[in-house]
Structures are given as structure tokens and as C-alpha cells.
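Bench log, entry 3. Co-assembly request; chain sequences pasted below exactly as received.
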Amino acid sequence: MKGTRLGETKRLPGGSGGDYPPRWGPGAKPLVGLGAKPPRATTKTKVTHYYPELTLGLSLLILAALSLSIGASRLTVWDLLSNDPSQQTLAATIIGEIRLPRTLLAVLTGGSLGLSGAVLQGLLRNPLADPGVIGISATASLGAVLAFYFGLWSVAAGGICGGLLAALLLVTLAGRHASTLTLLLAGVALSSFAVALTALALNLAPSPLAAYEILFWLLGSVADRAWEQVGTAAPFILLGWLLLLRTGRGLSALALGEDVAQTLGIDLRRLRLTAVVGTALCVGASVAVTGSIGFVGLVVPHLLRPLVRHDAHRLLGVSTLGGAVLLLAADLAVRLAAVGQELKLGVATALVGAPFFLWQLLRMRGTP
Amino acid sequence: MTALCWREISLRKSGRLILAGVSLAVARGELLGIVGPNGAGKTALLRCAAGLERGATGVVELAGVPLTRLAPHQRAQGMAFLPQQAETAWPITVSAAVALGRLPHAGRCPEADRRAVAWALDAVGMTSWAERPITTLSGGERALVMLARVLAVEAPVLLLDEPSAALDPQHQLATMELLCRLAQAGLAVCIVLHDLALAARFCQRIVLLQAGRVVADGTPEATLTDDHLQQVYAIRGIRHPIDGAHRLVAWERLPPSSGQAAAG
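Structure output for the full assembly:
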């Protein structure tokens, strides 16, 4: 870059010596003298309101406290501060060893699903996209099922490998210069294939009990999870979050199409790679320890988008919080409504989420 | 001073030759009109300059530096591109859409960003629409917002693909006047146009493309001659001198000339 500064535009040599933009300065005439639209009398200074972030953050804290306080034994977080040492130890054991891992997993999984849903919807510019659509959930499930089936390694590692394999396949399938549409179609194909293979594994299961166990795990739940599972999944989930949270600028630019985003300096190949690998890491790891939980990735960004004025960048943080809040609330509902056999979390989210989503769609019919 | 330069640019897409070794240079302060019949390669030429055609051969230089040696953000600061079709995935507000033009500057100076967005909105007369969702605007209004987005980049080179196609006559004239002033202020402005009357009136220099080749390059008087119009478009134009300048109206179709049959 010898002698030229590309960003230098204020005073340009070789022109007629005018300022650019020429509108500035005293006495400058409007460039486009259009009287048709009267300008607003007052210019509002734009203030970003953080109400969605604040509300969701507070809800998350309250729900987490509730989640730690509700369970089979009547212990609450306040018992941790109890004067009775035995009571305190008991509370620490039950809350620390049983409820805390469950709560953490609900937050991590919900956040992963909400965040990756927001990223994929922004990347594919399609409100129907979520980790399920591009095949990450299905392949992660398949990986976990295969690990369980063959007794290899751990189920969690199988899920993560499945998710990463899906990401690799997607990036290869979609090619170097592939469009977003190719990525979407490749994801749908991959998803169908993984579902078929999972069904095959069930079909060929050695005993009805094994098939039953796989099926049950696939329904998705955060119940009875221990620190071991949190320890396996959390590093991958957090790494995935780090990658996904870096895509905000690119996703904002994509609102005006791929060509415009590219000419605004966004490296689309890198953006796609970051989004797909990030999703594979956090969703793969989540699915591996909780089973498949549908609908969160689809619904959460969709509901929150109007609250952040459709800003794809801001939607990322809000969706992470929203996903965590939704899954924590769903898990609490499942625990409180428990009669006999506890309802599976994945079943509950779909059972409540789908009709709610349909109702939302009906309500918004006719409005853009 | 050359702001943008195409050197021997060729582009082939699914076996069809779109551009056949086009070489052009645009200086700062120049308003270049790129005209030609449908499929002549006008859009491809702009897209090559914007670095959007990966299959193209040849070199595009921005301020003397090959495009391939520039980082994405340097390219983005160096030129702004307006595509033919306005695409909007989400109903973001008009001001948010225009503010996306500041992305190449990475938010280093919020005050400059705010000023540039306000100026760009004002330049196209959309200030009072700033808080409207972009999806509620008409096609022409959306085109003006997209133009404002390009202006907000404050790049020294503007590449505009049919900026006036969706606009009513009043806004067509206003837009062309605006672009003239920007060129006078020292920008290099390249516009793809279909409207020969607008091109002849406002562009100091016109490049006439046909089948991926430059047929003529020069002043409107030198490029939009009767011969060229017949050869490239197979039309006859009528001319009317107003204020001693070149005024042209595309008037009637002619039977295709032998020259066009050979080129097509």
C-alpha cells in the first residue's frame, strides 16, 4: 500500500476541490432538492435499549435459583446458608451433585440451541433454519447412538464426533464456492441419511432393551446428569459459543444479501466455516449428553428477533439467553408436573412449543 | 489519477464468454456510464471490479493495487458496490440498513459513522423515513435506501448497477445530479445504465459494450453515434440539441445489421 490510503475520502486530490461528502459545511445546498418528504422536525439520538437482554438475564437467574431449589427433597438454596452443619452438608450434596449439573446442562444446551439457531437463520437468511435442519442434531444423535451401540468410548464423545463429522461433510459437500442454498440442501440430505442410519441401528439392535434405551435417550432429557457429563460437554459447548458469537458482524451484513456482504468486507467462506463448526461443537456436545431436544433453535430466535429490531448481531446474545431460559423453564415444568414417569424434556418442548409456534404464525399472518 | 482499472478481464460462465479481455481505467472525478444491450456484460464488468466473480481472469487494480493483494476490509473501504436487485432478508429499519455501509470501518469512530449515515439518508431524501422497516417501502424507495447504503461507505470508488432503474423521473434526475456532484467532488463513479438519454446527458464518458467487448469508449457524442446505435442496439435515435449539449432519445428499431449478427 504505497502512498494510497483507500479509506481516505474526505479531501480527494484531482477533483474540483470540494469536500466529500459535499453536504457538510455552512451554506451547503442539499444535494437532492426533493421537497416531497418533509424532514422530521427533531432528530432523535438513537439509544440502544437493553431491555430484552436485561429481562432475559434476570429471568435466567430466577429460573436457575428455582431449578436449584426444587426437587424430590425439600431443600432450597437457602439451606446452603443454614446454621445446622448436617443440613448444610446435605444441601451441598444434593444441590451441588444432583441439581447443579442438571441446571447447568439445561442452560448450556438451551443456550447452544438458541444461539446456533440464530446463527444459522442469519447465515441462511431463512427463519426456518436450525441445527436440526442442516443435519447437525441428527448426525450427533447418530454418533452417540453408534458409540452406545458398539460400546465404544463414551456416548458424549460419539455425539461430538458425529457433529464434527457432519460439519466436515457439509463444508466438503458444499464445496469451496458453494452458495448458501447448496449448504441448506446438503444439510437436509445429511439429516435424512443420519436419521435413516439411526433407525437402522434401532432396527438391528441386539435386544429390545437396548433399542428401548436408545429410543428413550433420543427423546432428550437433562435429568440424572452428573458432573462427568457436564465436564465432557462444557468445553466443547463453550468453544462453540466463542466461535458462533464472532459471526455477528457478518450476519448483520448478510441481511442485504451475499454480494453486498462480500463487498462490505465480509469473508463469506470463513463466516460459513465458523458458523458450521461452531454449531457442530456446541450442538454436537449438547445432543451427546442430553439427547435431541427439538424446537428451541427454531422458536427462540424467531420470537426474539422483533425485540432486537431484526438486528442479526444483537440477536445472538439474546437468543443464547432466551434458549437457556426456555429450556430451564421447560425442565422446571417437567419436574413440577412429574407424575409417575417423568415427561422427557424433548417431548415437552415440542409438545408446548409447536402449538405455540403455530399460534404465533397464525397471529402474524399477513404482516411481514 | 487512476482510481480503478480493469486489465484484460475475461469471464466465462458455463461455456459462454461473458467478458472477452476488457481493459478500462477510471480516474477520480470521472462519471463513467457503462451501456450496452442485455447480456453485453455490463453487470459482469462491475461484479469483476467488486471482486465477486471468482472465475474471472485478468487483473483489477484499485488505486494501483491489484485487488487480490488487498484485505477484504481494504477493498470494502476502497469501493462500494450497489447490486441490481435490492435484497433484504429481515425487516430492519432504513437507518440500520444504511448503517451497514459503515461495516468496513469497523466502528472505529461512531461519530463519523453517525454523520455519514445522516448525510447519506439526507442525500437521497430519505431522512424522514429513517425508522421505517425497509420491507414496508416501495421498490423505488428501497432503491434509494440501497443507494444511501452505498454512499455511507464513503468509498472513493462507486460501482452502481442500474441505480435509477426503479425510480420515477424526478428521482432519476435527482440521483444522476447527485452522482455528478459526487464525481465533481473527486469520486470515481461507474454506473451501468439502460437509459441512453440519462447516460448521454449526465456521463462525461461512456463505454459501449457488446458481447463482452468494448465497442466504443469516449464522450457521449463520440460513443452514441448513429452507426454505433445501429450496430449494437439495432435502433435509431433522434437527437435534439438543448443548451448546446447532447440529447438523445432511442426512437425506433431497425432490422439487425450484419455487424450485430456476426457479434451475436
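The radius of gyration of chain B is 19 Å. The mean pLDDT of chain B is 90.
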